[in-house]
Amino acid sequence: MTCFRVYLQKPHTNSPDTSFLVSTHGQLKLSIIQEHQTLVVSVLEARVMLEESQGPCDSYVKVGMFPDSDPSKRQKTQMVPDCRNPVFLQTFYFAVSEGDLHKRLLFTMWKSDSTTRLSSLLGCMSFGMRSLMAPDREVQGWYYLLGEEKGRKNHLKVPTQQIYHRTEIDLCRNRSAHTLSPD
């Protein structure tokens, strides 16, 4: 887990602090476009998954609408073995009805343990379906994988230029995996 200071606007010396710390669990590169009531979702790659000391990372991504009681509507990438920066390059299609507009499109990244055959959640993020279906809306780029509670409700784009302080990162590493700073 890494922690970054996120600025809501450029920091000024005489302005109040408009930033917060966020704990992240890696990053996922996505492309989401809307074509005739269908979302075309490409899961491209991931990076900064786990530290070397945390062992091998056999990872995969699940994508689906949330909340949804039908697991058959969720889709999953192929598992990429022993890689902290996996490349998936997989595209999925989701037909969206009027009744789906209140849902969220949820991305969850999982680490598979080959010895126990169990998977553990590395992080997640989500996007509101109504905003994804807006005309000319296109999502592309790197997004942070957040903790489960935060990621089920939010997404956070990785800025092209990251601004953070080393002491903030070190402080955050000492917190529990599910602790996030205020919004």
UniProtKB/TrEMBL annotation:
Organism: Channa striata (Snakehead murrel)
GO cellular component, one term: nucleus
Superkingdom field: Eukaryota
The protein's name in its UniProt record: C2 domain-containing protein
Domain annotation C2: ranges: 24-143
